[in-house]
């Protein structure tokens, strides 16, 4: 029986040599801080790197899209044809190519990614946890967030490295002390003592100027500080800016309200004036029309007068008619004067009668209150009235007369009741009178009987005495 030949281990399981320190300059810190040996990377057990920061943030769809945009922007800025996507997730080959590109940008030459990646991540102190065995399938939904976090972190490291490389020269040029030390050391190496002394004097003068400018700036700042302190103290003691502005706002609001009230009042006045103006315009139009009509009538009359022919007889007739008109006017004025005198007399008589009516109305009101007529109506005289009801202040037919009629009906009813009661009382009185007469007759009869009895007693007593 032939024994089984021992199978040669695969390359991924062969022990890997210790990385060269010149190739990975941070491997010293890794060797000092990590407990895993290089053999652990060659073993089949899954190993982890990093400080254990969770990549759960990269499971969020929105954060994944943001990280992908940042990564693709960086790749496109370096004229790379590589790119990543999440829907669907990029292939394992694309992910490994992106990792190799980023390591190349960080100046880490990599011959075999599955061996070098984790050493580099440890040397850079990557905060995200990645398992070595997941590198075979980094595009699975379970492994993708971790690798996306690592790639995004490497992109940020590369961007920071490029930023430092771009700004290192400007930092050196802006550092005056460094430039002075550099030039002074060069002059010292050359043995040029005069240049060294000149540089020293120039640098000291520059320092003195800067010191003077700093002192002036300090003085200016102190004065500004004192002014600001005084302002702050005044603001603390006095009303604040908000209170002052609120007070001004309240005053302005009151002014605005007053202005609105004035505007509304002016608008009302304007509306009234517009209405009045419209009425005046209508009146003016009517006057204009009337004037036109009068002018036309005058023109017509002028034409008629021009067409007429006057003679002496017509003039005499017109004079007589004018005298008759004047006589009629005089008679009318005399009649008017006489009527005015009569009107004055009537006014005096009316005033006298009105005073009498006032006295009578007071008596009537008192009588109505005593008799309790109606609903307590009262006569209130009105000198401006044109009808009796308006003058008396109450309608007699509709108010007073019904009350008087109802009062008369009540009186009649009461009088009938009293009459019936009187008749019954008279009957009772006659009956009582008859009874009294009967009683009197009986009393008289009894008195006569008593008198007769007394007489008999006297006679008997006399007989007994005899």
From TrEMBL:
Q: Keywords of this protein's UniProt record, alphabetized?
A: Cell cycle, Cell division, Centromere, Chromosome, Coiled coil, Kinetochore, Mitosis, Nucleus
First-listed, main subcellular location of the protein, grouped into a coarse class: nucleus
List, in alphabetical order, the GO biological process terms annotated in this UniProt record: attachment of mitotic spindle microtubules to kinetochore; cell division
Region described as Disordered: spans on this chain: 1-47
Intracellular or extracellular location(s)? Chromosome, Centromere, Kinetochore; Nucleus
Q: Which Pfam families would you find in this protein's record?
A: Ndc80_HEC (PF03801)
KW rRNA-binding (keyword) present: no
As recorded in UniProt, coiled-coil segments are 204-342, 422-449
Q: Which GO terms describe its cellular component?
A: Ndc80 complex; nucleus
Domain Kinetochore protein Ndc80 CH as annotated: residue spans: 28-163
Identify the domain of life: Eukaryota
PANTHER family in the record, alphabetically? KINETOCHORE PROTEIN NDC80 HOMOLOG
Self-association or partners: how does it assemble?
A: Component of the NDC80 complex.
Q: Which family does it belong to?
A: Belongs to the NDC80/HEC1 family.
What biological function has been recorded for the protein in this entry?
Answer: Acts as a component of the essential kinetochore-associated NDC80 complex, which is required for chromosome segregation and spindle checkpoint activity.
Name of the protein = Kinetochore protein NDC80
Organism in which the protein naturally occurs: Manihot esculenta (Cassava)
């Amino acid at each position: 029986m032939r024994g089984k030949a021992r199978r040669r281990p695969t390359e991924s399981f062969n022990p890997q040599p210790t990385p060269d320190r010149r190739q990975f300059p941070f491997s010293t810190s890794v060797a000092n801080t990590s407990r895993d040996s290089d053999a652990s990377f060659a073993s089949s057990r899954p190993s982890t790197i990093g400080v254990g920061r969770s990549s759960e943030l990269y499971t969020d769809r929105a954060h994944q899209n943001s990280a992908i945009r940042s990564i693709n922007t960086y790749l496109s800025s370096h004229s790379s044809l590589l790119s990543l996507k999440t829907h669907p997730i990029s292939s394992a080959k694309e992910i490994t190519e992106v990792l190799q590109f980023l390591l190349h940008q960080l100046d880490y030459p990599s011959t075999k990614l599955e061996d070098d990646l984790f050493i580099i991540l440890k040397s850079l102190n990557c905060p995200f946890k990645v398992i070595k065995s997941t590198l075979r399938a980094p595009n699975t939904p379970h492994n993708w967030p971790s690798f996306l976090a690592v790639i995004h972190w490497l992109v940020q490291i590369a961007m920071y490295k490029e930023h430092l490389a771009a700004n290192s020269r400007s930092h050196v040029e802006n550092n005056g002390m460094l430039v002075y030390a550099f030039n002074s050391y060069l002059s010292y190496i050359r043995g040029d003592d005069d240049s060294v002394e000149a540089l020293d004097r120039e640098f000291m003068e520059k320092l003195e100027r800067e010191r003077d400018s700093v002192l002036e700036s300090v003085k200016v700042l102190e004065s500004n500080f004192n002014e600001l302190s005084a302002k702050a103290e005044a603001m603390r003691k006095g009303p604040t800016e908000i209170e002052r502005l609120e007070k001004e706002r309240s005053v302005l609001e009151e002014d605005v309200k007053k202005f609105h009230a004035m505007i509304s009042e002016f608008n009302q006045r304007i509306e009234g004036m517009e209405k009045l103006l419209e009425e005046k315009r209508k009146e003016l139009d009517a006057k204009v029309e009337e004037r036109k009509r009068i002018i036309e009538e005058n023109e017509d009359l002028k034409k008629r007068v021009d067409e007429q022919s006057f003679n002496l007889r017509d003039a005499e007739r017109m004079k007589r008619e004018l005298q008759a008109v004047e006589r009629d006017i005089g008679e009318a004025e005399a009649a008017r004067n006489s009527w005015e005198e009569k009107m004055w007399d009537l006014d005096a008589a009316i005033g006298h009668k009105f005073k009498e009516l006032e006295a009578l109305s007071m008596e009537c009101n008192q009588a109505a209150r005593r008799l309790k007529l109606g609903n307590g109506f009262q006569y209130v005289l009105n000198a401006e009235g044109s009808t009796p009801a308006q003058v008396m202040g109450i309608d007699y037919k509709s108010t007073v007369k019904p009350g008087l009629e109802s009062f008369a009906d009540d009186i009649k009813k009461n009088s009938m009741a009293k009459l019936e009661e009187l008749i019954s009382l008279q009957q009772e009185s006659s009956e009582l009178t008859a009874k009294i007469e009967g009683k009197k007759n009986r009393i008289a009869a009894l008195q006569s009987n008593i008198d007769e009895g007394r007489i008999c007693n006297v006679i008997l007593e006399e007989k007994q005495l005899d």
